[in-house]
Design brief:
By secondary structure, this protein is an alpha/beta fold. It has three domains: 1-149, 3-Layer(aba) Sandwich (Rossmann fold), CATH 3.40.50.620; 242-280 and 285-343, Serine Threonine Protein Phosphatase 5, Tetratricopeptide repeat; 350-488, DNA Cyclobutane Dipyrimidine Photolyase, subunit A, domain 3, CATH 1.10.579.10. It contains 22 helices and six strands. It has a six-stranded mixed beta sheet, sandwiched between helices. Helix 4 (129-139) links the parallel strand 5 and strand 6. Helix 9 (242-256) packs parallel to helix 12 (286-297) and helix 14 (321-343) packs across helix 20 (441-451). The chain starts with 9 loop residues before the first strand and ends in a 12-residue tail after the last helix.
Amino acid sequence: MQNAVPEARIRSANDAPVNSHGHFVLYWMTACRRVEWNYSLDRAVSWAWELNKPLVILEALRAGYPWASDRFHGFIMAGMCDNRAALKDQNVLYYPYVEPIENADKGLLETLALEAAIVVTDDFPAFFLPNMIRSAAKKLTVRLEQVDGNGILPMADADRIFSTAYSFRRFLQKNLMSHFSAPPKASALKGRSLKKPSRSLVEKIQKKWPSVPLRDLNATPENLKRYPIDHAISPVPGEGGSVRGLRMLKRFTTSGLPHYADGRNQPDQQVTSGLSPYLHFGHISPHQVFHEIALNQKWQPQKSAQKKADGRRAGWWGMDENAEAFLDQLITWRELGFNMCRHNEKYDQYTSLPQWVRDTHDAHVKDKRPYVYALEHFENAETHDPLWNAAQNQLVREGRIHNYLRMLWGKKIFHWSASPREALDIMIRLNNRYALDGRDPNSYSGIFWVLGRYDRAWGPERSVFGKVRYMSSKNTARKIRTGDYVKQYATHGRQPSSSH
């Protein structure tokens, strides 16, 4: 197939054949919600070209996904607005569907697939998406292909779970270079004369499942209140979409990246990228982010090809310390989480922790905690610690916590909960309910790192923590400037109900 996506990124979800009599190729957009730098779209375009059929893109938004709220709906709908604008003058039929009530979309995909030659979708290893794809695959009578666009390394190329960032980084340094030769297209539709789709292709289907008018995709309170989702979690104004994501990427490479190594842990310095929600919702591609960093650094692949694969965080890329520090987060740590989710379906369960971690937890589970807070106290930022409360307030208000303080946030939930299992439940609930980048492999990595995953045993052994790494607000305040941060986020802004 011309302009083929690397085979390592493609897998069939079922054994059904391609239907040569189908009227179009269907791209079911689920995780890579963008029209640029998208392997799934590349694959769908190649199929449409080879079969000489029009391309239909279904981007659907369910109402009944876990933790559905105005915040997440609004972010996704902003991306749908961008996609609609980007595809307006293309030979593609874009079908945005937002489910008005739970289960209203039942039958939509199957009905579309009956008219399709093949269905292409995104391969995402976490949240409800794997089960959704498996369920759909059983129902479709036409081939369903999944395409992995999650990272620079195809998930299939790492055939085992890596227990540390060091071991995974060493693996990447040995195996990553070959994958830079076939990135996704910056614009899959540019220069490709696809068969023009007719509106009649899905006209009958749209009568039962109407696409969303542009005016209704604007994430206003008026538009959002019509959906059966959690309206207590408000949207973050101005967030969401590929246009906004690219703007933030450009801003970061010019103003944040030059200070990243030294400033990323300081809350009062705006040097972090802020891209994790855009990566999570697929509004921007890790390949596009890497491309911008490489341009900024005038990087050439041979700079890394000649380096020794020693697993060190700095030096292998041949870039400056700021770029190398950022790429370690973007590639090593982020893709380490995808590695876990791909190979362990229990990635979000306590039993997935290493044995030494569970052993030290068990040895200290009856230790007296200095404070014990219930979920509602954590959720409402009602602890004794002003710095922790400020971090929780930022999460509720903005859907994010400053990178370094996010680690402290988790460590103190561990310290102040009745047990490690309860701490895990609280972290997952708060993170997944409020964080724009929650429900993501990278996000689960951060939560489980708090409990000991990917880390080593530390000494001296402490009460409650045992051999797990310890953090405190007092020590954090010595390392970073927190005074202005605490003042900025001293109040909650609103008191969320814990009943949702």
